[in-house]
Amino acid sequence: MHHFARLAAGTAIAVTMSIGAASAQTVLRSSDTHPDGYPTVEAVKYMGELLEERTDGRISIEVFYGAQLGEEADTIEQTRFGVIDMNRVSMGPFNNLIAETRVPSLPYIFRSVDHMRTVMDGEIGEEILATFEDYDLIGLAFYDAGARSFYTSERPVRSIADMEGQRFRVMQSDVFVDMVSALGANATPLPYGEVYSAIQTGVIDGAENNPPSYESSAHAEVARYYTLDEHLIVPEVLVMAKSTWDRFSAEDQEIIRQAAKDSVARQRELWDAAEAAALETVLAAGSEVIEVDKQPFIDAMAPVYEKYVDTPELQDLVARIQATE
Ligand code: GTR
């Protein structure tokens, strides 16, 4: 599987072929770690349908789902190099690279999913999207990933005290390592695909994710205590390799941008349904969903803000998000 993934990645360059003399067809290769049918995968497919319609079939998208092109952090590198044309990823793995992405990745920065949507749909979201260009990527749109919560295999987290000494997998971002430390626990950054067996073998005590990921990754099978502390509402981002982008005319770029934006409403609709369904599924399969007092978790995050919101620009960004109704 791993070998195949590498091969596939090597061939994932936009294929442009001539059909007759006047027209050419471009199939954009887009990566996603999630399985077929997951809201993000379906939303990018939908964007592809819009593109095909609006370009009379000149431009389309093929989604390589289920981490066929590699684990998320690696696919980001490959997208920056232009080996992969498009990628739907969490903002988390960008944190160490792009300072601005740390802000929407801060624990409890958003008061609710609605607050996140308002902020990311507005001026602040546009500013953050624009920062990707300095890193060889074009930010096209933000998708939802709901709220992430902790889950554990042996010791349920019923209050912040139960975090003490537990070992959690986090995404490859220093922000999340410090977030977990601030809660009295230990963080182990690992690729998503390694989490299931790491929990099963007891290398870690649990992880953290939103309900659709907790369910579709089968982590719920090995970590049945799901604590609704909702520490992160970190948006996801759809990016295109700048080298791919630069091959399109200004007119086509506009069509691509618009199709990406037009896929957001579809993604959110699918997301809301998937989230409700995932919680039902895990409950039916024997997970315990635990309500917890969030305030001690919120209070514990002060050192994380101090460390990562360390320039006047980032402080301003945080203040503006907090001031958004
Ligand atoms: C999911 C997210 C993925 C990936 C995964 C993870 O919620 O949609 O892109 O980042 O979490 O934890 O690695």
What descriptive keywords fit this protein?
325 residues; D-Maltodextrin-Binding Protein, domain 2; 2 domains; 6-stranded mixed sheet; 4-stranded mixed sheet; 14 helices; 12 strands; 43% helix; binds beta-D-galactopyranuronic acid; TRAP transporter substrate-binding protein; signal; DctP_fam
Q: Class of the largest domain, according to the CATH hierarchy?
A: Alpha Beta
CATH superfamily of the largest domain: Bacterial extracellular solute-binding protein, family 7
Question: What is the 3D form?
Answer: globular
How many β strands by DSSP? 12
- From the coordinates shown, what is the CATH architecture of the largest domain? 3-Layer(aba) Sandwich
Give an overview of the whole structure.
By secondary structure, the chain is of the alpha/beta class. It folds into two domains: 164 residues, D-Maltodextrin-Binding Protein, domain 2, CATH 3.40.190.170; 133 residues, D-Maltodextrin-Binding Protein, domain 2 (3-Layer(aba) Sandwich). It is 43% helix and 20% strand. Strands 1, 2, 3, 4, 5 and 11 form a six-stranded mixed β-sheet that branches. Strand 1 and strand 2 form a beta hairpin. Helix 2 runs antiparallel to helix 11. The longest helix has 35 residues. It is globular. The relative contact order is 0.16. Bound molecules: beta-D-galactopyranuronic acid. Beta-D-galactopyranuronic acid binds next to strand 4.
